[in-house]
Structure formats: C-alpha cells, structure tokens
Amino acid sequence: MAIEEFDLEPTLEEPVIDEPKTVENAALLTIVESLCYEGSDQPSTHHQDAYDKTIISGEFPYQRNLKITEKWAPVDLGGLESVSVLHISCAKPQLRVTPTEEEKTLNAQKLLEIAGPPDSNGDFMPLLILSPGESMRVTPACPSRLYMRTRTGTVRIQLLALPGESDA
Asked: Which residues constitute the domain of residue 99?
C-alpha cells in the first residue's frame, strides 16, 4: 500500500451531512503567514500576509496522519466532493540524540513529491516538493488529480482538506 494512515494524535471523524450550500453552512478560515529571509551579506527580507476566506459546505474537514512511500498514489481526500483548501505538513524525521552524518544525509533526502496525473507513458512529473519540516497550503483546481510519493523511504505527513467552495 502506498499510503498508510497512522496516529500521532487522535482525530475525530464526523459524519458527512448533505445539507444545501447556504450562508448558514459558511465557515470562516483565517490565514496568517510570515516569511523571513536572512542572508549573511544581505539585508533581511520580510513578508507578512493575513486574510479571511469564507468557505461554504455541508461537509466536515478531512484530517489524517499518513505514511507516504516511494510509490505514486492519489492524494487521500476522504471522499470530499470539493476541496477549497489543501494543507500538507511534512514531518521532520525522528533522529537519535546525536545522529550520524549518514542518517542526516538520508533524512534530508526524504522529500515529498506532488504531481498531476501521469502522462501517456504512465510517468509522473513532480510539480511540488516538500522537505522534512515544511508545509504548504494550496487551493487545488482539480484535487482528485493530485498524486504524491517520496523520493526515498517513508515520510509521515499531516493532511488537512477543507471542504467546499471558497468565496475567492
């Protein structure tokens, strides 16, 4: 199996409720990001962004802790009909107190690759790469056509798919 679920902390599964998409079903998502780049011989560059997004859906968010392997597999969306936000966090590998140089090198190569559907030859072209400890948030145009794998070994991720259609 290319994707396997594991538990870091318990997550509650809520039943999917088919309700009409109305303002009463709206949820507010607040996003706050902060980036800071500090070069040794350059001035620091800072970027901050914050905004709200209204999401309309009768479904509940889908959140899972997953183990991803080297085999390409579709992104697990938990049966959501539409996805307004997809957030993926790539866990840092658990190292010994003093890891060897070889362990550091091997763990640095445990990259998560995300691609669109395979080409006519069945090959995938990675479009996004997450290093250990990184995360990303996207609004996918076609979430059911996303695939992921690791370059080497197994990587643990946390996946959050928010249902519905966004107002933006």
From this structure: 3-7+59-166
